[in-house]
From TrEMBL, chains A, B, C:
Keyword Membrane (UniProt): yes
Annotated compartments: Cell membrane
Keywords: Cell membrane, Membrane, Transmembrane, Transmembrane helix
Domain Glycine transporter: 6-78, 92-161
Protein name per UniProt: UPF0126 membrane protein YvgT
Species per Swiss-Prot/TrEMBL record: Marinococcus halophilus
Taxonomic superkingdom: Bacteria
Length: 201, 201, 201
């Protein structure tokens, strides 16, 4: 129930982030819907494939597909009105999506009896894989790999769950708060991971 | 039998469209073959993975692999001669491929008992997924997401089949004619879907 | 045992090639690790999916994950020292990775009873798929499709194994030597496959 609420918020945030990139790149309305969808569901789909979740699982998310569809539609119809609110709320919603998607991805992998490596990959892909595909399709350098700390928070979630450091409901709640706060601080205070550039060969 | 004929036409068209992009991007002969193949078979492969078709299905298309290989080879050997005919026939063949691939993808998903969402995704990926991968590998913005109406016709095919609006052979024939005509009109008369651009943040 | 040794060398080479591209593109330390990993394991993962290897296989490579992780870490910490050695050894190690990954991919596909087409695709993807994904994520035109002969050597490996021209240990050894030498000559003497460029439409 709580997961479902968080997933709705994350789905809206991811869908709209895809739609925004698509509109920035001057894609048509089909491209906007396509990129919104793939940002919301692409990470989970790849995770499913890599950890062996049956495909039927993917297609049982009818409700979330509709949430995604109508959020994108609303956003495309009233971009100016919604964009204003998006600036204040969008990144926060996105942080909720990042945290809850990553944690659910990790729990999925644990449930299937996979080792730590798989749990971490599942968390990272579910949390940040959609954004990665979004940027690749828009022909951009993936934001999650060079901007303010993003995918690392998904990795942290995967690590805590994969190591069994959190299990019960309260532990998961604390982890969720940690990840959301971490991400919020990252874009608020421009936390960046160290870079070490080398010249192109 | 009829499907097989249409699939041959579509395979030729998609392979050559991949080869053309590869030659425009100055890839080597291996890259040309690679991009041709992936344009023809990439969409179907992703669809298979997402709706759970056994992998053996993918590898039973030996005949179509050969059709693809020899079309690309011929095109690379005689680009100037063939390019002339391609300008008149290429887009029409491509429309046939789009329509027949999308419809077969949708029928596949229906056969496997998937819900409407899966049928539509299967249609869109089978019809336009190859072109999407082609452009991503060539480091271009995906044509199917911002040019004249393309992937939408695949979606329409998926919708009609997924909703059960067409079933028998004649209904499928009419749908096929509709999709091909729709796509031909789109590039003939430059039908574009509405865009709503926003400035980059 | 021998395969394991070669896989270690290939894993190191592929991981570091991913890390180098990531550092050239100014990704952060997470992006460097991510791109290193995906270069080393991405090709094999896609091959597994396309030829139907169970996902558990992917997650049983714990040792190689660690090899990858520590090579990347070392490289990021001491890029200047290691870069010097890398210029002399890197491409040679990479050739070993290309040959051994391609051959193992092909043998996998043969073992599963797939036809020649699948064996060749498995060889090409395992040998050069990681480099392909690396370049796509870094928003570059895939090196393996337009630079000195690369993926073709993987294809040759797949062809020899798929046709049953080599089977026993000695035949495999000779093929390995052929592929490595071929790749070394390719970058040493700038062997390129023919290009045939056409102007963009």
């Amino acid at each position: 129930m709580t997961w479902d609420m968080l997933t709705v918020i994350g789905t809206i945030a991811f869908s709209i982030s895809g739609a925004i990139v698509a509109m920035e790149e001057d894609l048509d309305i089909f491209g906007v819907l396509f990129l919104g969808f793939i940002t919301a569901f692409g990470g989970g789909a790849i995770r499913n494939i890599l950890i062996g979740v049956p495909v039927s699982e993917l297609w049982s998310q009818g409700l979330f597909f509709q949430v995604s569809f109508f959020s994108i539609l609303l956003f495309v119809l009233f971009p100016n009105i919604l964009m204003k609110h998006w600036h204040s709320w969008g990144s926060f919603f996105d942080a909720i999506g990042l945290a809850s998607f990553a944690m659910q991805g990790a729990l999925f992998a644990v449930e299937m009896g996979h080792p730590l490596s798989a749990v971490i990959v599942a968390a990272v892909l579910t949390g940040s894989g959609g954004g990665l595909i979004r940027d690749v399709l828009a022909n951009r350098k993936p934001m999650v790999l060079h901007s303010e700390v993003y995918a690392l928070w998904a990795l942290v979630g995967g690590l805590f769950i994969g190591m069994g450091w959190v299990t019960g409901g309260f532990g998961l709640f604390l982890l969720f708060v940690l990840l959301v706060s971490g991400r919020v601080c990252s874009y608020r205070f421009q936390w960046k991971l160290p870079h070490r550039t080398i010249p192109s060969m």
